[in-house]
From TrEMBL, chains A, B:
Organism: Agaricus bisporus var. burnettii (strain JB137-S8 / ATCC MYA-4627 / FGSC 10392) (White button mushroom)
GO cellular component: cytosol
Name the record gives this protein: pyridoxal kinase
GO biological process, one term: pyridoxal 5'-phosphate salvage
Keywords annotated in UniProt: ATP-binding, Kinase, Nucleotide-binding, Transferase
Domain of life where this protein originates: Eukaryota
Root EC class: transferase
Length: 389, 389
């Protein structure tokens, strides 16, 4: 653990449970990063509980913190992660500091998670959307969900051409080199487009319904820079030359129920494991296991799809353990979602939420990659024909 | 890692560096605790830099957070840690919630670190002192420094009788069962009182000056409860019967320079490793190594001195690594303290502070106890004759 990489994380803080910074910072620290932690809100718990205490950090407070950090020469991250920022004024303050950081250090690896909403519902102020659009060109990686891609690109994605169009907008108009969309419900048109070569993970049961799967897609603009980056040579020789991006995909079994903080955890893993200038497997800054991808052509990885594979594997494993734990609770603490009953008795929802907080602490071995191997990693498969569809 | 213990931590947050919650929460999480994190301030960096941004959490904000946590049934810790709380109003809000928690759950293990000042200088508002005095009877453990003991007991400690008097006030008047004072400069009268049996650690160089040592003292009221607590039987048979407490002590080599957050880290380890109802060595909630104390009479441990031994060992090891790292920095980042030069050029101090931030992330193996054994633990030695002096 000799290398000291500093990562600046700007997202929410909750006292209880694991969303935002509380889902991301512990894993990042376990994986060897010194993390500077800016809290955009200080809440008692996440909004899913229905009843929330605490306050937002105002744009003025954020600016004051950034200013003093800068004066003290403490603002020198090599990586940056931004997540939940509740309003446009605060987001603009963050935008200004990111602009400045990026100008001063062009090598900064910035993962922008445009946390705006899910499943057609905004949970931040609507005027953050244009600010996020301004910020996209600063990002090295973005990790929106399906709905957030639609918001950022003004493109409802209903078929392969509209999905392609949305990705093109992100890559070309907004100049984002790396896009990942995770937790996508496997719509029939997506399944139909998916090549058979992107095989489901080892533990697949053939009889499982397609509704029992979620889908993860990564799209990466890879700059070929010659011998210096041996991990890129496979890509150089592939069919993808002339295509706007290298697309990978993977399916994971859907875990029933709604869990909070999963996206925040996924982003933390993705940023941790992304090593653009290091051959695969990564010489990580940490003592983590970093398995070698299998040699079959569909498993050829870009540095980005490699990081997405590890992020997917670890996030899914922690989610499975969390689900297992939540099933072990007394029945009254795991009553299923029922809007009418939940309204009548708010504690019904609160107890369900509590039982579904990510089991990060109990599963820190998963974070560190203990036992992770080539065989049990959920590899992103290369989607050769993506742009030909 | 099956056991889920919840710990509520109420102390400061800084964006950059490791003091308060930033020094305590990561170690607590590594050691298997689910930590609920209440931030009493949200600062850019610790006060030692001279230039600080950010805001305090008001008493009203704290009360709102506690209220909602309670309404959501999320306030159910088995352990409690309170540290830096900047003013009497906020401290009173914390006092009220601690009172309530302690009434509801008498088994709550509460470590109160009365962070008020150091070396004769207060760095919180003076009116917190009486509030801390009110809170002392709620505590299972207190971890004041030398100056804070003097403040809490109104007793300047200048010789053995005044040290005994101060401890008696804490144990008898304020009903605190476990007191630890660490980082005590080894004054001549202390050294003179110390029995030769409390041997210096293995790596002692006989020629080292006494000024090169710090001293740690623990004092514990042990309730003998029979066969159910086998770890206590040694104490039952010892000379200490009739004495007000069992006192242990240890010396550690002084590491030159001032490091921040050391007390906060020590408290986190102390609370993590304190298992009052479990025989030594502890069946910890975590995967940590918990060595068996040597069998010599001076090494007989109470559950509290056992925890203090591990806390001392791990804190000292991390501090040594931090010091080693700070020495590796370019000269302009490690210029020694010099008040006049520091005033002329504030960045001189800032750079020194930055280089001395605890190297927690790089040394997480120490936190987990990797390689920790009976032989390399800095055992607290039993000070048999303490009350006879």
């Amino acid at each position: 653990m000799g290398i000291r990489e500093r990562l600046l994380s700007i997202q929410s803080h909750v006292v209880f449970g694991y969303v935002g910074g509380r889902a991301a910072v512990f894993p990042l620290e376990c994986l060897g990063y010194d993390v500077d932690v800016v809290n955009t809100v200080n809440y008692s718990n996440h909004a899913g509980y229905g009843n929330v205490g605490g306050t937002k950090t105002s744009a003025k407070e954020l600016e004051n913190i950034f200013k003093i950090l800068e004066e003290n020469e403490l603002l020198a991250p090599t990586r940056l992660l931004t997540g939940y920022i509740p309003d446009a004024e605060s987001l603009s303050a963050v935008n200004r500091i990111v602009q400045k950081l990026k100008e001063e250090r062009p090598g900064l690896i910035y993962l922008l998670d445009p946390v705006m909403g899910d499943a057609g519902k905004l949970y931040v102020a609507a005027d953050v959307v244009p600010v996020y659009k301004q910020m996209l060109p600063l990002a090295t990686i973005i990790a929106p969900n399906w709905y957030e891609v639609e918001l950022l690109t003004d493109t409802p994605m209903t078929d392969m051409p509209s999905l392609q169009k949305a990705l093109l907008i992100l890559h070309k108009k907004y100049q984002v080199p790396n896009v990942v969309i995770s937790s996508i419900p496997l719509k029939p048109w997506l399944l139909a487009g998916l090549p058979s070569s992107i095989s489901p993970p080892n533990d697949v049961d053939d009889h499982e319904d397609r509704a029992d799967w979620l889908f993860c897609l990564s799209s990466s603009i890879v700059t070929i820079s010659g011998d210096a980056t041996p991990s890129h040579t496979h890509i150089n020789g592939s069919k993808s030359i002339g295509c706007p991006s290298i697309v990978h995909a993977a399916r994971v079994p859907l875990i029933p129920g709604y869990f909070s903080g999963v996206g925040d955890l996924f982003s933390a893993f993705l940023l941790s494991h992304f090593q653009p200038t290091v051959p695969i497997p990564l010489n990580s800054t940490s003592a983590v296991q970093t398995p070698q991808p299998p040699s079959e052509p569909t498993h050829v990885q870009t540095p980005f799809s490699y990081a997405a594979s590890l992020a997917l594997t670890k996030t899914h494993a922690i989610l499975s353990k969390t689900h297992e734990y939540s099933l072990s609770l007394p029945e009254e603490e795991r009553l299923p979602s029922d809007d009418e009953l939940d309204i009548k008795n708010p504690m019904r929802k609160v107890r369900r939420m509590r039982g579904r907080e990510l089991a990060l602490i109990q599963n820190q071995d998963i974070i560190r990659g203990v036992g992770l191997s080539t065989a049990n990693t959920r590899w992103m498969g290369k989607w050769e024909s993506f742009w030909e569809n």
